[in-house]
Protein 1
Amino acid sequence: MSHELIVFLVMVGVFMLGCFLAKLPVGVSLLISSIAGAIAGGQGIPIRHLVEGTFSYVDTILVIGTAMMFMKVVEKSGTLDALSSVIVKKFYKHPAILLILIMLVIMFPGMITGSSTAAVLSAGSIMAPVLLIMGMDAVSAAALIAMGGLMGMVAPPVNLPAMIIGGGIDVPFVGFSVPLLMLTVPIAIFSALFLGLKQTKD
């Protein structure tokens, strides 16, 4: 087994332990996994890289950090559970509308944090049983949740790839909201209906 593969496996293992076992936020798990990878690679704790990398994208990091805190508060307060319950009770007789609203709920954490993983782990885990109860098979439900996480990551107000690219080439992250909405919302609605409508109507 090559040294690079060992480092990679260490990073993936530490990340999964942080996310799933320790229930740490995704960003914190990524930080710990990067430190573990550096140690496994024989570089020690990469303090210089962590500090320099942080200050290169300090505005982006502040957005992500505060968004993660906000999502944890929303999650722990039961707001996502309550919202899911209200949506299901109001629209269970209208599967098309219900699927679209479920997709938007799944997208929401990704829209706020810029992380598709956050969307899948928070809203996706809440909505998965609802999709299965509606009659979707496990594969289609997983595909819908994955699409919701991906579209949430790309949708405004936070789009990490665009923010990082803008920071790298000194372009302000301004005026992206409408184009990103036009790109993501139609695809998200189409995905929800394409993957779920036929099964929920049967």
Note: The chain has two domains: 1-56, 59-201.
Protein 2
Amino acid sequence: MTDANATQSTETEKTKLGKRWLRKFIIFLVVCIGFGFYGLYDATIAYPNRGEKDASYRLLEYLRAADEAHSLALPLGIPQEQTPPDYLAQLKGDRQGLTERAAGEGGAARDARADLAKLEWLDALAKVWELTPERIDADLAGSPRETLDELAAEWETRDQPKPLSWYDIPVQWLFTVVGFGLGIWLAIHMLRVAGKSYTWNAGERRLGLPGGHSIVPADVAEFDKRKWDKFLYFFKIKPDHAQLGGREIKLDLYQYHPLEEWCIEMHKHARPEDFEDEDDDAGGPEHEPAQAAPQAESGEPESEEAPSEPRG
């Protein structure tokens, strides 16, 4: 054997991450993180801003109704002996009665309309998680008449904002958690995959496995391709292998390149009869792509192609 051949036989190659797998994985990662940021923006900026505008408009409507009912002379806001959530729940429980009384005439009807407007204002504050005594006191601080005039001037040229639903902000927080959670999981999984590699000594046809063990074609009792359409190769190891005897090894051909070529090389060397039809197919491609979804079992992104399958 020449020196060049000796060098070639002892040279060890190492797998890299599959480009198609990495590209699709990064796309999924970016989509998930982007989804998380989108939900975070809506939960902390877009929906709260819309809810604050609605609360401001509802306060204007409440002060107008209170001015019509009693010229803003009676106490506004929440009775001292009640908490805002309890008082809001009380108003909601009496909504039907208030609506019936508000349809009439006279002082009782005007008071009912004021209470209904107060209910809408408090409910708007609750939807942006601001239904607190401090917030209510701040909104009603100062002269009620001046506050009414300021809000009337502010909303004179603006349209009524679209109110929030009770679930709008919680759902956006759910989107945030799901998006960032999936993104973190994908990132961790990608780092775990990147932290493993396979090696190949062409001269010995020796496949080095993550963890330090290695096999040659003579160590494999069965080359199982039951999940070939999902980019998986299973090697059943002979019982006499020192470390892996009797075990079945699952090899992910989609995540690692060029692991597929090495596995087929081992298979051809150990079981050439499995490839007789392929050798007889003159002019045909050495590998035929399968038409099936990749790596569903291991939770990986789908691929346009499946690994090459010997047609023996």
Note: Strands lie at 12-14, 16-17, 199-201, 206-208, 214-215, 220-224, 232-237, 248-252, 256-257.
